[in-house]
Design brief:
The chain has about 170 residues and is mainly α. It has helices spanning about 1-25, 30-45, 50-60, 70-95, 100-115, 120-135, 140-165. InterPro entries: DUF4199.
């Protein structure tokens, strides 16, 4: 199991880093919502190695059988390696490539909100979002959030893959 997790986890790790950085660098002129969709798509592509890792373990290392629990365990471990890759890429982006990302994102979000809210509602939301960005806008925290998001999506993919691939 260890070799499968490392092999497919590293494939996902590298794919996650490359896809995430490529999406960020090539999508500079796209809107944040489009960049967000591309980011989630790159996470899912990177996490596809969960399915292949579980299938490899079942077929090549475990005699054609795997339980749902074992499949989820393998998938989570692979997802954690992918999450580390995406987290590192996010940290590199927010510290080296675009250290002003948090303030730019806040500014863009506030402009969008201002157009769709009443002035009183906007001022309340602006204060709330500004405080959140001050509290949680550090590069390390954003990288951790990316890691957590990838692992969460990876759990869902592990569950679905395990249900599809389980054999007793």
């Amino acid at each position: 199991m260890k070799n499968t997790v490392i092999k497919y986890g590293l494939y996902g790790f590298l794919t996650g880093m490359v896809c995430f950085l490529a999406a960020i660098l090539l999508g500079k002129n796209l809107s944040y919502s489009t960049q967000e969709i591309i980011g989630y798509a790159s996470m899912v592509v990177s996490l596809s190695f969960i399915f292949f890792g579980i299938k490899h373990y079942r077929d090549r290392e475990n005699g054609g059988v795997i339980s749902l629990g074992k499949a989820i365990g393998i998938g989570i471990l692979i997802a954690m390696l992918v999450g580390i890759g995406v987290g590192i890429a996010d940290y590199i982006y927010t510290t080296i490539i675009n250290p002003n990302f948090a303030s730019e994102y806040l500014e863009t979000t506030l402009k969008t909100m201002e157009a769709s809210m009443s002035p009183e509602e906007f001022q309340a939301k602006k204060a709330e979002l500004t405080k959140q960005m001050d509290d949680y806008g550090s590069s390390g925290f954003m990288a951790f959030l990316m890691f957590f998001t990838v692992v969460l999506i990876g759990f869902v993919i592990s569950l679905i893959s395990g249900l599809i691939l389980q054999r007793k």
